[in-house]
Amino acid sequence: MTEEDVQHYKIIFLGDQYVGKSSILNRFYQDKFEQDYQATIGLDFHSKNVEIKGTTIRLLLYDTAGQEKFKSLIPMYIRDANIIIVVYDITNKDSFIHTEHWVNETKDLKREDAIFVLVGNKIDLEETRAVSHKEAEDFAAEKGFLFHEVSAKTGDEVQELFTSIIFPEMSRKFNIGDEEEVKNEQEGENNKNVKLGQNMDGPKKKGGCCGGGKNKPTKIENPKSEESDEHN
Ligand code: GTP
Ligand code: MG
User: Fold this and answer.
1) Is the CB of residue 224 less than 8 Å from the CB of residue 8?
2) 6 in ligand 1 pocket by Cβ < 6 Å?
3) Largest CA distance in the chain
4) How many angstroms separate the CA atoms of 109 and 75, rounded?
5) For a Cys-Cys bond, which of 21, 73, 96, 221 suits 88, CB 3.0-4.6 Å?
6) What is the number of the ligand closest to the CA of 121?
7) pLDDT per position as a tens digit, 91-149
8) Fold of the 3-175+220-227 domain
9) Is 18 a pocket residue for ligand 1 (Cβ < 6 Å)?
10) Using CA atoms, how far apart are residues 103 and 85, in angstroms rounded to an integer?
């Protein structure tokens, strides 16, 4: 498969300063963690190829800056994102309260074609937790967001956030998946009498995405090689 055939999907990370957006991304992207805080300036960009149900896709990872002075830049990046992840710190109540700004802002864009995820970070600091799992889960459900809690520091649940929460939803919503793999999985799931998802009742077009045109994956010119880093 050539680079040209690979579909691109844009993921944007939003949330207050210091909640751990860059750390979650670093953990996912290169399985690393830095204790020292280095504020993101403007926006950082990474990309990574991943496989979803036998189909290789490229994730374009946009890491925004939480600092107030960069806030005005963000809406233009949200507009064409395929996946919008809003992060808060479970030990910082204000950071949770502030997610409402991004939740409402993204919902106002009426992006029914996008995937929305609320992520509580720093679960290694359970003893200083200030936002209960239930409270955040209820809020996410009310707003139509998926929800997961992670620790970028220990790596706990970070890969699962992608492999168990985001990728299955991408497969369902964007019809990603090798025909054979999806069929096998469906058969397996049917045998277990578990319903996979409402749109999983037919074979998937290989590498296909987004019949209606609205939720087309992001297309970029000159995609970088396997994994790349850019600082804007
Ligand atoms: P901005 O770029 O300013 O918006 O911040 P950010 O949201 O990208 O936060 P960043 O990833 O830079 O992390 C902020 C601080 O929290 C750093 O000192 C990290 O080491 C720390 N941190 C991030 N994730 C975790 C975590 O899961 N647990 C703990 N204990 N600390 C974390
Ligand atoms: Mg950052």
Assistant:
1) no
2) no
3) 53
4) 10
5) 96
6) 1
7) 999 999 999 999 988 877 777 889 999 999 999 999 999 999 999 999 999 999 999 99
8) Rossmann fold (3.40.50)
9) yes
10) 9
